[in-house]
């Protein structure tokens, strides 16, 4: 299998061989982590959302410049909740994972479909994003080192 190598340059179409699919336990742990990530941002739980990243975590591709560090990351959930009356829903799907250089690093790819459900407006499709993440082991779980997204907004 081949996939985009987002380790070297997440915005480029670098291809490399799959290193090694992750264990079932690690896959389920990352899948759970990303579900909690979606619920935290949708519920306006900023502290929970930023604590899913490493201290120097990177969120790139949504804002003009990458956001680096937990303090800078706070703007994403704060604004998402406030700007949408708490009705935003993120849906992460099509997750696949491979180990990076070792079993303490995971390269993950997923689609994140975002909708809002504001009263009187019905459901609205906001964006589909292709996410390329690097996660690092943290005790029994994982933290996001970087999340590079490609926004597909139909414009």
List keywords for this structure.
155 residues; alpha+beta; 6-stranded mixed beta sheet; two-stranded antiparallel ribbon; 8 strands
List the helices and strands and how they pair.
Blueprint: E1 2-4, E2 15-17, H1 24-42, H2 46-50, E3 53-60, E4 67-68, H3 70-73, H4 75-83, E5 89-99, E6 105-118, E7 122-138, E8 141-152
Parallel strand pairs: 3-8
Antiparallel strand pairs: 1-2, 3-4, 5-6, 6-7, 7-8
Q: Your description of this structure?
A:
The protein has 155 residues and is of the alpha+beta class. It contains four helices and eight strands; from the N terminus they run ββααββααββββ. The longest helix has 19 residues. The radius of gyration is 15 Å and the shape is globular. The termini are far apart.
Summarize the structure.
The protein is α+β, with helices and mostly antiparallel strands and 155 residues long.
Q: Separation of termini?
A: 31 Å
Structural class: alpha+beta
Q: How much of the polypeptide forms β-strand, as a percent range?
A: over 45%
Q: Tell me the total number of β-strands.
A: 8
Radius of gyration: 15 Å
Put simply, the count of helices is 4
Largest sheet: 6 strands, mixed
Which regions contain 5 or more consecutive residues with pLDDT less than 50? none
């Amino acid at each position: 299998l081949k996939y985009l190598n987002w380790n070297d340059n997440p915005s480029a179409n670098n291809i490399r061989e799959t290193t090694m699919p992750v264990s079932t336990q690690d896959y389920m742990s990352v899948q759970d982590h990303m579900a909690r990530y979606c619920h935290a941002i949708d519920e306006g739980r900023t502290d929970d959302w930023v604590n899913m990243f490493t201290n120097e975590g990177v969120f790139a591709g949504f804002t003009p410049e990458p956001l680096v560090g937990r303090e800078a990351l706070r703007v994403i959930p704060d604004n998402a909740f406030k700007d949408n009356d708490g009705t935003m829903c993120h849906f992460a799907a099509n997750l696949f994972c491979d180990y990076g250089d070792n079993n303490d690093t995971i390269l993950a790819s997923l689609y994140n479909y975002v909708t809002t459900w504001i009263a009187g407006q019905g459901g609205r499709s906001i964006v589909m994003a292709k996410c390329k993440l690097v996660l690092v082991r943290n005790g029994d779980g994982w933290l996001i080192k970087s999340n590079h997204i490609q926004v597909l907004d139909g414009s």
